Amino acid sequence: MAFGRPKQQTPWIEAFTDTSADLQTLCSCLALGDLNADNDCKLIIGDFGNGIQLKLKVYKGTTMVADLPLLSQPAGILCIYTDRNEPRIPGIGVATGSNLLVYRNCRPYFKFTLTPEHCLSLESDIWGQYQDADMLIQQLKGLSLSVGFSNLSTISQNLLLMEPSSREMFLKTSNHFSIKKQMVITCVCALSKYTSNNRDVSCILMASENSHLFVMDPETFTLLNDFTVPDICSCLAATGIYFVEFTILMVCRNGSLYYLSGGNIHFIAQLCSLPVSLISVHPKIITANMDNTLSCFNLQGQKYWTISLPADPLSMTGIPIAGLALDLVAVSLSDGSIHFYNGANLVHTITTTDPVSSMIFGRYGQEEHALISISSSGMLDIRLLKRTAQFNKQSKLSFQLEYRPSDIKLLVPKKNKLFLGQTVREIQNCKDMHVWFHHSWLGLKVLASEAFITAIHNFSVLPKESLKMMIKVVGLGPRMKIMITLENLSQNVIPQGLKITFIFDPKIYNINTSVIKVPVLNFGFCYYFETLLTCLIPISSTLQVMVISTSSVLLSTVASMPNTAGIIE
């Protein structure tokens, strides 16, 4: 039999790399779509450039076929179908500021603007009584401190952010002030409207800076619904069908995770750190967090797992591979690598020359599975997944075997006489063995329950006061020493004003110091206390030691005392 030789293989084909692309964007500003209905998917990029020359770029294969200017930085880009006409040509939705710009055939098609929100009545009064610029600035600063800068109107925010030398000129040259607050879009996503078909009409979900979530109909460009969310959304993900049943996942800037279903908003969990990205892998929710962790929850808030990442996560995207029945998650890290996870298992790693700032996976050109990434230096890289690709968590090496699987001989042990006799005994006494197993199992449950009840009665501690106490009895009698060790296990709480006391039968024992004052317990140190005890009667009993504060008992335990019979006459 010949042994296999390990051969390093990669499931990806390096299709194209453009080091001079000079692209700067985020994952939310990447999209893939068949823009000309020719079964050739294009790549749409919202390029930030240097912050001045903002562009909407479209790539076909390895060539840029469109380069459109943008007036302001986009918050998100979608490729959606706005009607059911043939041929099915999708539109490009660009969320920028308070506007949603729709392009078709790489030309401007429609512009939708969110209606500005009315400002506070107090702010309107301040602008209505405006006479002196300095007085106006002072009043607006005071209002900003009381209600918050984000709650002011757009004109007030712009005025306070200006240089002092420019404010007077701005007020003189502006004849009319619109005291309204613009609804700036923070993130967008698409939700199927009628069916789950990818080429059907999709609704557009838009979250705004004033904690609202809007649902827009792309067929009529009107708002279908308006939801008020608990905080400002930073990430959105949607599943389902709008007119049937849907679920919208939301991650807020305070680290809270919510979902909207049936018109009601439900709380899922409070993340330990702010999230970088959000992915919905039904029925699980996966977040990449700033504390270098990857977490997985369900809609009920139960955490399935949390894994530590070797570096800071920069972006994350889903890798659905229907042929392998896999839903992988790709996470790009600051150390210049892309990790692929199947659940909590690392199945593959790609090492890049520069850290990847944004990436997207899907159909590109006529290839079903393409991973497109943009590095921090602006390099565009396209990888195609091989049709023979396999992902497993055991090894990154694939073995080429030089023999057929049918040649492998399974080592099955022979059935000896002892095995046959044991089989016959189990068949004849199966009922008795089953009854005995359940009897032993119930007995084990009873012992565990009794031990649990005993622990509850003999040990108690408040959650906020994490203390550890150990008791040691030195001596056989009649005079013994009680040695107590206390340790503070909480880094956030420093207990003060504690005391140690004892509960005992005064007819049996006499304690020299019945109350011991405890100093401030600092974290990481052990504190030792002791007192003398005298046994009056030759009887074995128990002694309860308690740590108390001014309001409650923090910790208590029971010490079994030695039997002094034969020592005391």
Describe it for me?
With 569 residues, the protein is mainly beta. It is built from six helices and 41 strands. The longest helix has 29 residues, at 430-458.
Estimate what percentage of residues fall within beta strands.
over 45%
What class do helices, strands and sheet pairing give?
Answer: mainly beta
What is the overall silhouette? extended
Count of helical regions = 6
Q: Distance between termini?
A: 84 Å
Secondary-structure topology with pairs:
Elements: E1 5-7, E2 12-18, E3 30-33, E4 42-47, E5 55-60, E6 63-69, E7 74-80, E8 91-96, E9 99-104, E10 107-113, E11 117-118, H1 121-128, H2 133-147, H3 154-161, H4 164-173, E12 180-181, E13 185-192, E14 202-208, E15 212-217, E16 222-228, E17 233-241, E18 245-252, E19 256-261, E20 264-270, E21 275-281, E22 284-289, E23 293-297, E24 303-308, E25 313-321, E26 326-333, E27 337-342, E28 345-351, E29 356-364, E30 367-375, E31 380-385, E32 398-400, H5 417-428, H6 430-458, E33 460-461, E34 467-474, E35 479-488, E36 498-503, E37 509-511, E38 515-518, E39 526-535, E40 542-548, E41 553-560
Antiparallel strand pairs: 1-32, 2-31, 3-4, 4-5, 5-6, 7-8, 8-9, 9-10, 11-12, 13-14, 14-15, 15-16, 17-18, 18-19, 19-20, 21-22, 22-23, 23-24, 25-26, 26-27, 27-28, 29-30, 30-31, 33-41, 34-35, 35-39, 36-38, 36-40, 37-39, 40-41
